[in-house]
Amino acid sequence: MQKAAVERHTIAILVDNEAGVLARVIGLFSGRGYNIESLTVAEVDHTARTSRITIVTSGTPQVIEQIEAQLGRLVAVHRVTNWTTAKPGVEREMALVKVAGTGEKRVEAMRISEIFRARVLDTTHASFVFEITGAPDKIDQFIELMRPLGLVDVSRTGVAAISRGPDAM
Amino acid sequence: MAADTGADISGAEIVIRALKDQGVKHIFGYPGGAVLPIYDALFAAEGIVHVLCRHEQGATHAAEGYARSTGKPGVVLVTSGPGATNAVTGLTDALMDSIPIIVLTGQVPTHLIGTDAFQECDTVGITRACTKHNWLVKDVNDLARTLHEAFQIATTGRPGPVVVDIPKDVQFKKGPYIGPGNVRHRTYRPKTDPDLGAIVKAIDMMANAKKPIFYTGGGIINSGPEASVALRELAKLTGFPVTSTLMGLGAFPASDPQWLGMLGMHGTYEANHAMHDCDVMVCLGARFDDRVTGRIDAFAPNAKKIHLDIDAAQINKNVRVDLGIVADATKALKEMLHFWKTQKRKVDQAALAAWWKQIDQWRARNSLAFKNSDKIIKPQYAIDRLYELTRGRDVYITTEVGQHQMWAAQRFKFEEPNHWMTSGGLGTMGYGLPAAVGVQMAHPESLVIDIAGEASVQMTMQEMSTAVQYELPIKIFILNNQYMGMVRQWQQLLHGGRYSHSYSEALPDFVKMAEAFGCVGLRAETPAELDGKIREMIDVKKPVLFDCRVDPNENCYPMIPSGAAHNELIMSDADDGSAVGEEGKVLV
Fold it and tell me: In 3-state terms, what secondary structure has residue A56?
C-alpha cells in the first residue's frame, strides 16, 4: 500500500455522561493504536446528561475514517463530527504559562505577552503566570518565545472546537 | 405489560424475571459468593434450565455454541473476581466472531468496590475491551432496564457479547421490575436498512461484471436463515461463483456446483485464484480479515469491490472498496433480488461462461487431494469418513483450533447455516468441546461432533463432566497427531524444522480418561478399523471421547504463506518453505 500523508484532525464526540464513557473512548484509541494529541472533556448539557469530548488526533485519511467509524459504534456515543473534514469549525485552546526571571528577560516576557494578548494572572517580583487563549499553533509559538526568557511550567487545556454558522454539531 | 408495575422484588428476582421475559430457557454458569442471591432465586425458578459448567471459560463457549446454533442469545452467570476473569476468553471470542452472549457477573457489594475485597476485580474495566458494551449496576432501580438493554445490544445490529456486573447488595435490595416492552435505549439505533441507491449501484456493477465472485462471511449466518435463502436465490439468478470465509460456511450449500469452497490461508486453489483474478467482488457480511486477504497490496488487484456489512466500521478498514453498503444482510440481499428482478437485469453470459471455464481449470487441480495410506490414518481421510458416515443426519460440527479445524472446514460439506461452530477470529483452542455442550443442550436429538485436536481439547477437557451430568451425547472426535499440528507445520515451513515445544511428550490415555469421566472412550489406529469405530461412536447414546490416531507429520494444504498473495498458494510439502519471505515471517 502507498504511504498516505498523515493529517491532523479535530474530532468532537457527544456522549452520554455515564461512568466509564471516557475510558471507552480512550481505550478505543489505545487499543487500536490511534494517536491522541490532545483531549478535552466536560459535561455540556446537565439535563440531557451529555458530555462533549474533543480529540485532536493524527493519521492517514484511512485511519481518520476508521477512527470516526469506530467511535460511532460505541454504544454511549450520540454523535461524531470531524471539524477538519465534515464542517468548518473554529478551535481554541487555553494555556497557563509560568515564566520566572528578573531584569531584561522579565521585561521582554511582558512585552511579548502584550503582543499575544496574554493576561497576567499572577505576578511576583521574580515570576509571571500568563493566561493565553488562541489556536494551538499560536500557543505553541508563545511557549517557544518564552522558553529562553525563563519558562518554568505550562498547563494547556487541549482544544475546544465548534462549528461556524448557525447549526449545532 | 400488565406485570410491569407491582410490588418491588429483589434484584436477584428481577434478574430471573428479566431472563424469562427475554425468552431465556437455558443458562450456563458457575456459582460463587457474589452471585449466591441470584442462584437462590434460580433455585425456585421454573422454566429456566441451569447448566453447571466446570469452568467459566467453558460456560462462555457453551453459550456461544448455543447462540450460534440457534440464532438466540446465550446466557452466562458467573461470580465476581476469577469467575469474571475466566469468562474473558469467551467474551473476546464472541466479540471477534460477533456472537450474542449475555454474561451476568456477580460483584462485591457496592460499599466494598475499590477496597481490594475478596474476589473483587474491576470487571467492567477488564471486559470493556472484549464486550460490545458493559454495565456495572449500582442501583437496583436501574437493574431491569439495564438487563433488557443488554439483550437488545447483544442481539441487534452487529451481534456481540455484553457484561452486566451486579454487586451482591443490589441483588438483595428490592426494586421495581419493568418489562422489555418499556425499555428503549437512549442512543443505540443500529442501521439495518440499506441505502437503495447503493443497492442499485451494486447490481449495476454485478450486471456488468465479466469475472464476478460472491465472497460471503459470518454476517450471512448472523443475519438469520433468511439471508442464506436470499443468497442462494441471488447466486442462482446471477450464476456467479460463491466462496466463503471460515465463519460463513453453510450459508451456501457445499454440494452446489457454484460453490468454490472456502477461501483464504487454507482455502481451495479455485476460490483463491478466483478471488485474485475477479473483476467484481461482492463481499457479503465478511470483513477482509488477514487470513482471507493474504498480502493486502496484492489482494484482488483488478477487482471493483462491493462491501455489505452491518458495521460501518468494517467498510474501508483493511481494504478500500468501491461501494460500501451498511445494512443487515437479509434486508440488503432482498433488495438486491427485488431490483435485479424488477429491472430485469442480465449478466454477461459469454463472459461468465469464459470465467467458469477458467474456474473449472483451477478446480481440476483438485487442491484438497492428499496421498492416502492403508497403514496409517490420514487426518483428511478421517474427516472424509466422518462426513460420509454421518450423512443424512442432523449434524452439528464444532471444532477446536489448528490443523484439524482447517481440515474440517475444507472437507466437511455443510449444506445449511448454523451447523458449523468454530472459533474464527480469536482462534481459541479449547472452544469446541464446551461449544458442543451448548449446541447439544439446544438440539438434544441432533448429532453434535467436536472435531478436535489432542492439544486443544485438553484446554477445556473438564467440560466432559458437564456433558455426562446433563446426559449430552456429544462426540469428541480427536485427530491425535501428538503435535500441536499447526505450530509444527509453521515450524517446519518457517523455522527450519526446529520443533520447539510443539510435541506433547506425555499425553493422557483418552480412552481411560473417558471412562474416568463416566463416558465412552474409543480408539482407532488403522484405516481398516476407522469406519467401524465411527459407527460405534454414532450409535452410542453417551458422550464419547474418540482417540483417532493419525499421521503425526501431515500438513494442511493448500496454504497461502504469510505475506503472500492469493495466487501464490503452496500445495504440498514439495513446495518448500522458501515461499515465506522475511517480511512474511513476522506475520502470524
Answer: strand
Distance, CA of B163 to CA of B102 (rounded, Å): 6
The answer to whether residue A66 neighbours chain B at the CB level (below 8 Å) is yes
Q: In this predicted model, what pLDDT tens digit does every residue of B310-348 receive, in sequence order?
A: 999 999 999 999 999 999 999 999 999 999 999 999 999
B429 is known as an active-site residue: no
* Cβ-based contacts of A30 with chain B (< 8 Å): none
3-class secondary structure, B46: coil
- B208 and B181 Cβ atoms separated by less than 8 Å: no
Residue A119 CB: number of other CB atoms within 10 A? 10
Instruction: Please tell me which of the candidates B136, B188, B313 has its beta carbon nearest to residue A66.
Output: B313
CB B429, CB B401: distance < 8 Å: yes
The SS3 of residue A63 is: helix
- Rounded average pLDDT over B42-52: 95
A70 touches chain B (CB under 8 A): yes
SS3 (DSSP) at A122: strand
What DSSP string runs through B409-437? HHHS---STTSEE---SS--TT-HHHHHH
Query: Model-level pTM greater than 0.90?
Result: yes
Q: State the Cα–Cα distance between residues B105 and B121, nearest whole angstrom.
A: 11
The DSSP string of B471-484 is T---EEEEEE-SB-
Q: Distance between CA B437 and CA B467 in Å, rounded?
A: 6
* Higher pLDDT, residue B419 or B182: B419
| The amino acid at A22 | L
> How many Å apart are CA B447 and CA B440, to the nearest integer?
8
As a whole number of angstroms, the distance between CA B251 and CA B268 comes to 17
Query: How many CA atoms does the CB half-sphere of B411 hold within 13 Å?
Result: 25
Tell me which residue of B387, B339, B19 sits closest to B203, measured CA to CA.
Answer: B339
Q: Is the dihedral of CA A159, A165, A166, A167 positive or negative?
A: negative
Helix runs in B24-136, H state only: 36-44, 56-70, 82-86, 88-96, 123-127
Taking phi first (over 0 means left), then psi (-120 to 50 degrees means alpha), and beta for anything else, what does residue B8 get? beta
CB pair distance less than 8 Å for A77 and B125: no
Which amino acid, B8?
D
B313/A31 touch (CB, cutoff 8 Å), yes or no: no
Among the options B20, B72, B119, B482, which is catalytic? B119
Query: What integer is the mean pLDDT of B574-586?
Result: 64
Q: Would you give the DSSP letter of residue B286?
A: -
Report the 10 Å Cβ neighbour count for B350: 9
By the 8 A CB rule, do B100 and B69 touch? no
Which pLDDT belongs to residue B562? 83
Q: What is the ipTM of this complex?
A: 0.90
Find where cell 419493568 sits.
B178
The CA distance from B536 to B523, in Å, is: 11
Strand pairing partners for A38? A56
In a 13 Å sphere around the CA of B507, the CA atoms on its Cβ side amount to 19
- Does A75 lie at the interface with B, CB-CB under 8 angstroms? yes
d(CA B315, CA A61): 14
